[in-house]
Amino acid sequence: MNGTLALVAFAASVCAAAMVEAYWYRRQLLKIPFRIHVNGTRGKSSVTRLIAAGLRSGGIRTCAKTTGTLARMILPDGQELPIFRPDRANVIEQKRIVQTAVGHNADALVIECMALQPLLQSVCELKLVRSTHGVITNARADHLDVMGPTRLDVARALSATTPISGDMFTAEDRADSLSVMKEACDDRASQLVVTTADDANNITQDELAQFSYLEHAENVALALKVCQSMGVARDVALQGMWEAQPDPGAMRVHVQEVHGNSWHFVNAFAANDPESTTRIWDAAYNYFPGVTQRVLVMNCRVDRADRSTTMAEAVATWAPADRYVIIGSGTDIFLRRLLKRGIHPDKVICLGNSSGPELVESVLESFRREERMATAPRPHFQSGTAVAERAEEMESSAMMLMGIGNVAGPGMALADHFGQDQGWERFRTPVTRPARVLEMV
Length: 441
What we know:
Blueprint: H1 2-30, E1 34-39, H2 44-57, E2 62-66, E3 72-74, E4 80-82, H3 93-103, E5 108-112, H4 118-129, E6 133-136, H5 144-147, H6 151-158, E7 167-170, H7 175-187, E8 191-194, H8 197-201, H9 205-209, H10 217-229, H11 234-243, E9 253-258, E10 261-267, H12 274-284, E11 291-300, H13 305-315, E12 323-328, H14 331-340, E13 348-352, H15 356-375, H16 384-396, E14 398-404, H17 410-420, E15 425-426
């Protein structure tokens, strides 16, 4: 009997402590007047940074937290701190972020949703953030093993972060996904605010060119709409966004002369769903002057087998690359599907965890072999002029390499090599280019 009473007393004390802790945490949340919860398939980290920068520029004391390529806490002065994780990522860390923001007297907290499981996304919103402003960048077919099986299921999962009696902003443009989001907003008495194609088109080429990386018009338009709803003027918010530090996974282009030829490296490793990567590949295919050789670099992860399969299916339908380089772990899944879909084995290079210089040399050697074959003696029916023209084309051609699939592991190492090693320079986007090629995701 005494044991039973002790157990009941212990359970009661635990419940009481939990209630007190929940009450205290709710009071902490209320000390931050504006809480912006950013969710979506693509662009969460970029939009989080854009909103925070715009609000800071408008005089609103703002903290932010990104979960993307490298988890970061961004303080009101723009200083960035790494997020300490003693073990794997856990949504409970959002509580530490809130406490840090309160400690810095933040008037606004822009926080990226870090949950994938639909139930956990709801818990993050209703228990940990309780946002005043929600953001869903877009709803695309990714993480279907967790949020799927269909794109609309992804939209439903993302809608779990809809605020209660607040505003939900989105740049999603599909009517069926918007209908799902509208239902969630109606259920939680929130207003759905949609960033349209016209809003994105109002972001001029000159404005996009002010970013130190390739930013997407719809991301900027979405962030501006959030900032303007909080009283920050468009020009003021834009100025802050231009000056802000980009996410480590932001899409950049770097150029260098390699053996007399111009190479362009497009860091799109953060794009890892078929729809986004298709748009990027299509936009960049003929974007860079003089490029006649195109190399696609797919970074695989053994724990993302479903992604490798769907990406291989998409890649096989694209405008063809001259070489397909496969790096990372679990590469056999992507390789088998690629070959099954008709990509010629001679165009595929498997490199595992090779370094940047090793990748460059392997690609060069592959094209050298092709050049040697092109200039080797041929049967009498192939003219010497044709052989010479082919050899001259190979010697004078510029190269584009695009990295896709996953940022982690060799993807980050390659991005660091092309972005930081001596000789590689950042490619400035020409403002005279058509706007559509800048809207890559």
